[in-house]
Amino acid sequence: MRGGLLLLLCCFSPYVTFVQGYNIGLFMGPDSMEWHSLRHAVDQWNNENAVRSELSLDVVTPAESSVRIESQLCDLLQNSVVAIFVPSSVDDNDLQMVYSMCYHFHVPCVTVHGREFFPPEGNDYVTSVAAAYGSTALASLELVVNLRWRSFVLIYQNDFEVSEIVDLLAVWSRERGTIPPRARVRKLPEGTNDYQPFLKYIREVLRETNIVCEGKGKIE
């Protein structure tokens, strides 16, 4: 029986495909939406390309997510990652540390953060896949047009997002060539996650129910 099995393996060994595995690092674990999104993308790529390309991808995460960002990054590097994905949920203050370590260890870093958080010139290990500057304005414009709003409130969270808001209003005037709906701009309250009073103010004081949220602000 053993001899027959060895003979079978020898006969078919030229047709056996050995797939080389590569790890992609992510700071968030399986309890996060970022992990499930990346896991889905990796699984889809493996299903379509692993056998043909003879390589497969996997997602690895730090053993401890509560430690400092540099410790998490060291943990990922010990897993021999070939790239690190940096989602928008990574704190803005930690980005430069991540970019610097990726440059130092020559590990490609793919980020969805915009150019305002981009590393200094010369760091070729960081690639941004964020939407092109001004694209938010065009998307907001299409939303307002399709919904046929006569007025709306534009909410933003960070001061640097004001430039995108200016783009929105400029794009409307340039693309539509008509009198735009009445737009009022308000900034999210700072130091709180309870936005109910703010929304009540918009509904009862401004008498508005149409809202466009700019940036990463999360309203529950």
What would you say this structure looks like, in words?
The chain is of the alpha/beta class. It has 7 helices and 8 strands; from the N terminus they run H-E-H-E-H-E-H-E-E-H-E-H-E-H-E. The strands form 2 sheets. Strands 2-1-3-4-5 form a 5-stranded parallel beta sheet. Helix 3 (69-77) packs parallel to helix 4 (95-105). The longest helix has 21 residues, at 33-53. The radius of gyration is 24 Å and the shape is elongated. The N and C termini lie far apart (65 Å). The relative contact order is 0.09. Residues 1-16 have low confidence and may be disordered. It comes from Steinernema carpocapsae. This is Receptor ligand binding region domain-containing protein. It is found in: Membrane.
Top keywords for this entry?
about 220 residues; alpha/beta; Rossmann fold; 2 domains; five-stranded parallel sheet; three-stranded parallel sheet; about 40% helix; disordered N terminus; ANF_lig-bd_rcpt; Receptor ligand binding region domain-containing protein; transmembrane; Peripla_BP_I; membrane
Measured distance between first and last alpha carbons: 65 Å
The tally of helices reads: 7
Q: Segments where pLDDT lies below 50 for 5+ residues?
A: 1-16
CATH architecture of the largest domain: 3-Layer(aba) Sandwich
Give the domain tally.
2
Average pLDDT value? Answer: 78
The level of helicity is 40-55%
The proportion of residues in beta strands is: 15-25%
The biggest beta sheet is recorded as: 5 strands, parallel
What's the total count of β strands?
A: 8
N-to-C SSE string, H for helix and E for strand: HEHEHEHEEHEHEHE
CATH homologous superfamily descriptor of the largest domain = Response regulator
